[in-house]
Amino acid sequence: MHIHILGICGTFMGGLALLARQAGHRVTGCDAGVYPPMSEQLQAQGIDLIEGFAADQISLRPDIFVVGNVISRSLKADGSPKFPLMEAILDEGLAYTSGPQWLSEHVLQGRHVVAVAGTHGKTTTTAMTSWLLEQAGLQPGFLIGGVPINFESSARLGQGPHFVIEADEYDTAFFDKRSKFVHYHPRTAVLNNLEFDHADIFDDLGAIERQFHHLLRIVPSQGRVIVNGLDENLERVLGLGCWAPIRRFGIPQGDFWAEGPPHDFTVYRSKAKVAQVRWQLSGVHNQLNALAAIAAAEHAGVAPEIAVDALCSFGNVKRRLELRGTVQLQPNNADSTVSVFDDFAHHPTAFRTTLEGLRDQLPAQKRVVAVFEPRSNTMKLGAMKARLPWSLEPANLSICHAAGLDWDAASALAPLGERAIVTTSIEQTVQAVLQHAQAGDQIVCMSNGAFGGIHQRIIDGLRQGR
Hints:
UDP-N-acetylmuramoyl-L-alanine:D-glutamate ligase, single chain, Rossmann fold, Protein-Tyrosine Phosphatase, Chain A, seven-stranded mixed β-sheet, alpha/beta, 23% strand
């Protein structure tokens, strides 16, 4: 089969392309701004990429066009279609489908699907669960929305019956407004947490809760639902009906729970002690991710003791509090070392959990400096601006790159007083960091985009003596 993928460089569609190629299909694709690292990963697998969405691509005559949710029927300012290839496909009546639908029919059919859903922690928990199954010898397939350190790529077919997938609640395609995850038909469904997000497609929290309940409706009675027992919103979703056995994690004395600090904690299965986890990850959120992964792996046949042992060698995912570099400001003084981290956080709750996790690992005298941009659609719309001061409380100083916003970031951050700085360009942001950096600072750059290469620019500036 020859498939041509529209929007191939996104993490999900790029992962789908890799899976299709591994399955022996001919794969081509197009995107606006064919960009690394995904473009390099795809080209290395023999996948031909085309820049843009020109209508003449229909001459490729694939068996089917697979349409990513970046594609729409929108128009440019001059009235011409933004995606002429899609218009040509529709005009000629050619076969097309969505990414999740193609994946469901050609990869997931007949497999034990472990789907990891939730507002936060999907990528980490998906990578973590895949690693637990791998270490147990199950050779799972997986599709991870990030770059896992423990594996060579973000997606593979696998040899065993299990397939672990990051289950996003975002809509499927312009012609299918259901959440992606309803296509995956999981036997094991992990619900990490639930908050309002994606303000560009959901009107309110209730609309997201309905999509999560649609997911619960298709988990078989012999399947399992793994739920964060600390999340009231998820309990409300369960109250709408659940037809599969439920296992809760996080609640003391519950099905799976932990005792001790997030970097060194004891795992319990009900009242029975399982084992100790000692690892490099920080934050209560990662402790909860670990419990979710252990519970999911158990349903896949991995004993909790084996899962806990595998956790200790889990290397996380790139851009999850990833150390990008260090600079020693004073010669022969290790305490003067400034560390610069990259983190994918793009929601107030993610800001706070990331910063709290780092703060908890540091001595009191060291400062945490948060450098962030409100880049997600939800943040750009200002739906979460009132929560920003709360989300940034663990930081000693917060620097916001506010270019292109329709709301006043300075007013939103006013409760932080002198602990907040607002800039309107990447250059201003870099200069603000360099001006205020102190010996021993831990600088965390948070964005779901490239952030203008700010990490290296800060490191270079510190090395050059500001």
